[in-house]
């Protein structure tokens, strides 16, 4: 009699669903990330600007606090597209720092310890793996981007007159959509860097360098050629252009919305390609 | 501290809250010394402390009168083949050994000569010009050994040196260790293969949970273990009769007859009394073909001293 | 052991490590950072010569016509005056603006405008005029000589200070110097060095020398190649006059600033790699600190590597034309340090940082499992 017929019985009880299994990875990753003191400090610091913005909204909606001051101040204190753009700009920078700290640890250790075959020998596809890793970053970056942004937007709705929401609902929609685009880009850069270099440290530097060096290189090209099209290699500029369009603000010169979307789409595709090439269940012996 | 011994004086090492080794006092004379203990018992920690890769939190270590905090002098007389299975990506086996020798101040020509000699000793000449990154586990083990012996050290420290070696190379490597020990040098090695430790070692250090359980020659260590009865195998024709005679002795705790009735296993609490009793039986005309101690080996020591700790 | 023997050991370590710093696959990114500005300058020179050929082939207008373009003129007037342009492109955009609150209703008034924007370009043999029209009316005319030597030198100064020193050398040194110790810990090969009969300080000096030699050679070459690429498209007379004047001094100052950048940032990143397990956030803080250097009060400006390096640069970096006037006031740089202060100052800081790194490397233990 075959051994399995005597002793082996497959588990036949209930199993959790696909998405529940998928969420196990981010759940553990969040737990691990927030055990790091530096991560908690950086997340807390990232919430300072939203707090200041909340104070600003309060002051802006309590005209008695600044009654008698000039009309220029009134315009400056307005809660408009420019206000939300400034908020988004500041928080997007914190996004990069958080991704540089958290992102490298998501894939690089799995690659350098040859752990991918272990993951893929479970009911988990490569796409699931990337999605789970990305969920970790999306969840974490949401904490400092659209979630506080939405609270600010809600605060403004509550404090402003009744017609404000009807006239400005697109600020809220633009804020969420804009941040989702940004979080997607930052997460993809972080995951691709983590998969590309294997070393957490260098992956972190690569994430920072990607945004800072590309921005610098774009300015350099614009300066040397005396043009504006150099900005196409600056993902931050492309995202800013999209945000302007979403919030109904004038688009800065040098980039139009379609070029920006094309740049961002191309970037995401290129990063996806890197992930596709690097995340293979092979064991590298070196 | 003696100039020819390796001395640990009340050495402790903690990794954060995890114990590495605790209050270790050792005097290791020249010869082959084996560190024996279960995984995580502190063998590698002891070796790393000895070679200055980690520093003790308390206590002092001296390697033939030199401090591990002074690698400039100590590593001149010490060679260490670690268990870390990594090698520089760029290096061929030959480069790997030569590079280390250049730091000793040898000219390139002399470094290359010594490197070839060491590579020959570990029987890796054919693969010497290939990148280490492409070596098998056993080859990487041998090239690390070559690097450790290339400068002709007085103290050779080897972490699991026989792992991954095929039987032929294993025998050659053991012969090399014996040659080193015969020249009055220290060879300190850790191993899980207890039979080999038994055959190779002049002395053993048993370690468990970061503490030294026993040290010294195997026979000496066995003698000091009083709570476990000594075991002897007796080969004889009249096994049943001898068994009944021995069973009357007070110090004998157990006698087991072999199935073939031509031998028996005796457990005794007093080796000297047992020896006298056996003489009496022989003089009474019973044929005894041979007496072999059954537990004077590392396996038994390990079982007695560490088995409970596992 | 004599000092000479230790120096020889350090040099042996340096030569072994240099191979890794210069020729490893990872060095590709460092080369890219170092030589990217040179490629762009060369590209600019090539494109200028090609454009001039194309402009001359399409015809020129009289210089007086270009001088007569004034904001407020219409597209038709310009085309009637100057004829067919060198280039012509246009697009339409919608602009949405919030206006003040309507007092009566309390609601905000949103104004939406449609803008038709058109660009025309003219060439008089020496100057290009780039005209921007909004709804048919000339809003701005930018006229410039594409071979303006002075302007090109100023652009180079900007690229050198804002891209080269602040980003390329910064990230290049981060890659090279952190690789020296932290990289070996990640590769689990650092113990080979620690098992050599060499003092840890000697190992540190050897590795630093290797990183410094590699980074200085790579970045100084990149800076000089860019410098020559800036000069290349200009006329022989201008370049000759430059070499007879301040040319050699400028070249040497840029080379010195690049090399000292490697000295300063190199020591900082070497120490960070030894002292911190995750030096990325401190590196980011340093990057931001160096980035906002120009916004800081005089005294704080002097606490950055960039301040001393910029003091060595012969030409100040131009401010962006779109920098707000208020910001321009704040951005006024602190008085540059004299080179006699900047160079020793930077070297003293480097020695102090290396001393701290030496203390760290002496205490360093091999414990790869925590990496």
Your description of this structure?
The complex is a heterotrimer of chains A (286), B (310) and C (371). Chain A is an all-alpha fold and 286 residues long. Chain A has one domain. Chain A has helices at 3-6, 18-33, 37-46, 48-60, 71-76, 81-102, 104-112, 116-120, 126-142, 146-159, 163-197, 200-225, 235-247, 257-278. The radius of gyration of chain A is 23 Å and the shape is globular. The mean pLDDT of chain A is 88. Chain B has helices at residues 43-51, 71-77, 93-102, 108-121, 137-149, 167-182, 194-200, 218-224, 239-247, 271-283, 298-306; strands at residues 6-15, 18-28, 31-36, 58-63, 78-81, 155-159, 186-190, 203-208, 211-216, 230-236, 252-257, 263-268, 288-293. Chain B is an alpha/beta fold and 310 residues long. In chain B, strands 5-6-7-3-8-9 form a six-stranded mixed beta sheet, sandwiched between helices. Chain B has a four-stranded antiparallel beta sheet with strand order 11-12-10-13, covered by helices on one side. Chain B is elongated, with a radius of gyration of 23 Å. Chain B has eleven helices and 13 strands. With 371 residues, chain C is of the alpha+beta class. Chain C has two domains: 3-47 and 148-370, no CATH class; 60-144, Beta-lactamase Inhibitory Protein, Chain:B, domain 1 (2-Layer Sandwich), CATH 3.30.1450. In chain C, 64% of the residues lie in helices and 12% in strands. In chain C, strands 1-2-3-4 form a four-stranded antiparallel beta sheet, with no helix packed on it. In chain C, helix 5 packs parallel to helix 8 (236-275). Mean pLDDT of chain C is 85; it is low at 323-332. Chains in contact: A-C, B-C.
Task: Note the topology.
The complex is a heterotrimer of chains A (286), B (310) and C (371).
Chain A: H1 3-6, H2 18-33, H3 37-46, H4 48-60, H5 71-76, H6 81-102, H7 104-112, H8 116-120, H9 126-142, H10 146-159, H11 163-197, H12 200-225, H13 235-247, H14 257-278
Helix pairs in contact in A: 2-9, 3-6, 4-10, 6-11, 6-12, 6-13, 7-11, 7-12, 9-11, 10-11, 11-12, 11-13, 11-14, 13-14
Chain B: E1 6-15, E2 18-28, E3 31-36, H1 43-51, E4 58-63, H2 71-77, E5 78-81, H3 93-102, H4 108-121, H5 137-149, E6 155-159, H6 167-182, E7 186-190, H7 194-200, E8 203-208, E9 211-216, H8 218-224, E10 230-236, H9 239-247, E11 252-257, E12 263-268, H10 271-283, E13 288-293, H11 298-306
Parallel strand pairs in B: 3-7, 3-8, 5-6, 6-7
Antiparallel strand pairs in B: 1-2, 1-4, 8-9, 10-12, 10-13, 11-12
Chain C: H1 3-23, H2 27-58, H3 63-67, H4 75-82, E1 87-101, E2 108-123, E3 128-134, E4 137-144, H5 149-187, H6 190-194, H7 200-231, H8 236-275, H9 280-291, H10 298-301, H11 305-312, H12 325-330, H13 339-363
Antiparallel strand pairs in C: 1-2, 2-3, 3-4
